[in-house]
Amino acid sequence: KEITVKDVTPPSTPVVNEVNDQSTAVSGRAEAGSKIDVKVGTQTIGSGTTDSAGNFSVGIAKQNGGTILKITATDASGNVSLTKETTVRNTEDITKPVWPASSTIFSKEIGETSVILSWTKATDESGVSNYELYVDGSLQNTLPSNQTEYRLTNLKPGTEYEITVEAVDASVNRSVDGPKLIIKTLGTYAERLAGKNRYTTATSISQSGWEKADTVIIARGDDFPDALAGAPLAFKLDAPILLTQKGSLVQDTREEIKRLGAKKAIILGGTGAVSVEVQDSLAQVGLIVERISGKNRYETAVEIAKRLGENPQKAIVAYGMNFPDALAVASFAAQNGYPILLTQKDSLPEATKKLMNNFKETVVIGGTGVVSENVMNELPGSIRLSGKNRFGTAATIAKHFTDKSDKAFVATGMQFADALTGAVLAAKNEAPLLLVQPEKLPSETSEIVSGLEITNFTILGGSGAINNSVMEQLKSN
């Protein structure tokens, strides 16, 4: 018995470029190889086919301003897409609708995933054709001019959104001063950024935070010393931190660099951390490659600090032989432009000591078990942020640097990789980086979540790094 699989999936709705009363073609994108029909009412005024890249240009007679065109795509199996409607713009009418100062938009009902919005129906230009509803700057829906209420759905719980309404007239002139409203949905939301390993988790984090990046930071994925101080520099350059093996460039990292369209890579650490072979592979991808390194982790941190290019009054000093404290403070250090310098427990490395002459204040991270009182006394204007363990220290850091935050990034405190690559994304979101155990929410983390009123969590790493039960504990905290 032979069975032929039938294609019953319609093409996506066509994307259509602006059409005005002087246009003799309708152009845009749709499924490759599909047939494009352009109609006015039920009459077809033009047909064509998309090319192999999905582009189309269908010839039409000139249409009057205000005419509504209906465009569909039909694939080889006869499946028809949803109709895309576009209004022909009148090129002689360039007057934008203007909202009166008294115009407003307000929420009638807010839930965990939806909100009912209402706005005043008033502009000083007659003939408004429709309203456009924007969420965080992206067009959500186009509504008829007689509609002034709308239920916005598929929102994330515990998340803040900016809602804007703009008026569009028959000539497709669009207002630019429509009423705005900032709302926050109810409840608590948690998402996970993860891959099959630390390298692909790093690319997932990069994909979440960066559509494009001119520069990428490259760090070794199985050892932490040279990368501990990298977050402030990555934040300054708006560059994601990607991971590599010592002797070879990970393929997923290579592909992410291409997706970002990066032109430059900065390697953290010497050839003992990231080999010449990796450097050559980056150059073969077409990148300008720079390496920041010193004779040891302490000198590397100093060299990274020198690249920040600013002269902040304050520096962060953390224990250099382990990772939790330096990474827990990385988001706030990055946001404030503070360099992260490293120390031994009982003695301040010479390179760190020399650079400290440039600062008036120091924030020491961790208790006396990792940074002794003698070392702290050598540092200018020093204060200490610590807890009874790494989770408590991360909570103390968050409490020190912020009074309230509706969002937090969460990483395992038992491994360094996810916290390292996630710290820059946390800084971009002006959020703290909190640490948890793989299968347990520490009491210190739970308390700071409640204290800062955090309702939106981004979990870094897969379920092997942070169990789903921890995610549920965070949501119900």
Textual characterization of the structure:
This protein has helices spanning about 200-210, 230-235, 250-260, 275-285, 295-305, 325-330, 330-335, 350-355, 375, 390-400, 415-430, 445-450, 470-475, and strands at about 15, 25-30, 35-40, 45-50, 55-60, 70-75, 85, 105-110, 115-120, 130-135, 140-145, 150, 160-170, 180-185, 190-195, 215-220, 240-245, 265-270, 290, 315-320, 340-345, 360-365, 380-385, 405-410, 435, 455-460. With about 475 residues, it is of the alpha/beta class. The protein is elongated. It contains 13 helices and 26 strands. The longest helix is centred in the middle third of the chain and has 12 residues, at about 200-210. Helix 1 (about 200-210) packs parallel to helix 11 (about 415-430) and helix 7 (about 330-335) packs parallel to helix 11 (about 415-430).
What is this entry, summarized?
It is built from 13 helices and 26 strands. It is α/β, with parallel strands linked by helices.
Distance between the termini: 57 Å
Structural class estimated from helices and strands:
alpha/beta
The share of residues in extended strands comes to 25-35%
Largest sheet: 4 strands, antiparallel
Low-pLDDT segments = none
Task: Name the overall outline.
Answer: elongated
Average pLDDT confidence is 94
Distinct helical segment count: 13
State the helicity in percent bands. 10-25%
Write the layout of secondary structure elements.
Elements: E1 15-16, E2 25-29, E3 35-40, E4 43-49, E5 55-59, E6 68-74, E7 84-87, E8 105-110, E9 115-119, E10 128-135, E11 138-144, E12 149-152, E13 160-169, E14 180-184, E15 189-193, H1 198-209, E16 215-220, H2 231-236, E17 241-244, H3 251-260, E18 264-268, H4 276-284, E19 288-292, H5 297-306, E20 314-319, H6 324-328, H7 330-336, E21 340-343, H8 350-355, E22 361-365, H9 373-377, E23 382-385, H10 390-401, E24 407-412, H11 417-428, E25 433-436, H12 443-452, E26 456-460, H13 468-475
Parallel strand pairs: 15-26, 16-17, 16-18, 18-19, 20-21, 20-22, 22-23, 24-25, 24-26
Antiparallel strand pairs: 1-2, 2-5, 3-4, 3-6, 6-7, 8-9, 9-12, 10-11, 10-13, 13-14
Helix pairs in contact: 1-3, 1-11, 7-11, 10-12
